[in-house]
Amino acid sequence: MGNTLASAIPNGLSDAISRQTDRPRTLKIATKCIPDFDGLPEHWTKWKTSALNTLIAGGYREVIHDPCHAYSHDTDNEIVYTLLAAATIDGFARHIVAKYDDEKDGYAAWRALVTLFDGESRMISTAKRLRDKLCTICLYTDSSPDRYIDVFLATYRNLTSHDGHMEEPEAINLFLNNFHDEDYTAWKTAIRLHKDLDLDEHIHEFRERADSVTTARGAKKKLSPHLRHLKRSYTMDTANSSDSSVDTSPSKRVRRRKHKARRNHAPTSGFLQVTPNQSGTITIETADWRNRLTPEDRTFVQAYNAKVKHGESTESLGTPTSFTILKPRLTSQQKRKRVDPAPSSSDDSSVDTTPPKKKSKKKPERKKIRFHVEDGADADA
What we know:
Blueprint: H1 2-22, H2 44-57, H3 61-65, H4 67-72, H5 74-87, H6 94-98, H7 106-117, H8 120-136, H9 145-161, H10 168-177, H11 185-191, H12 199-240, H13 252-265, E1 272-274, H14 286-291, H15 295-309, E2 323-325, H16 332-336, H17 376-380
Parallel strand pairs: 1-2
């Protein structure tokens, strides 16, 4: 009885194992397990690595490497084909996998992709594009150092996998030459002196320098609003205090405001003397009007000219504060035309009461024609 049980247990375990082995396996991974492949040669290496990792994790390594195993396990082979078809359905490599739609042959579809994109001619052209891309990856002031490192290393390793023939010293030199940020200029010059450092050590040193630069920039960025506020308040204080003896060098806006106030309200030194013209009005030069007259004096000039034009008295206007009005000088012609003072009542007898004679207008003489003819007596003689 004991022997029977002892022999039945191993037989039952072996039968269970055989049944588990013969049962078709299911893919116990995410539905979208392999990323999409757009069919571009420069993205092949990255996609190939991701697809291999997914298929190996799912237990399908033998399907894509061993044709005998693939054709003896039809279910696994069909699953691999389904994954490849779903990954290439929207890319330029769809026609390669579509040739095996009827057979559902995952091994053949995988080998066709590898043969096309890992071929010699395709690898040479891809390596050339990757090398050009590696030369255009640069670090600018507003760039992220981590992204620069990631893109540069990914492109360099992709180029190496395509036999790009780029040695590590050339890659290091290209990595340093692509810095276009002034904060790394001194560090780049100093690290070039260390000839024994490899690419990974350069990356490590660059990360340390990038951390310090990022920290300094963050502190400066946080401090800049406070500095602007302090500068604005200091400028306003110095503009309001006229007794300050410190050269504050105010901003352009403050200087413009001061100049405008000085031009409108503060006359320059010196007392202006104005002489009325022949009509009696006052005319002031533009520069004196802007720089030497106060707003009250400008109003005075306008009111004075208006009263003079209307023949009114100007005594009610008062006197200006920044200029004085001189009496006009009479010309010789005006002096001749001055009227004598009126005579007194005692001298009425000497006054000629006869009205003045009207001046008669002389008629223009007519031209006379003379013939110079001699007298008759002289002619007879």
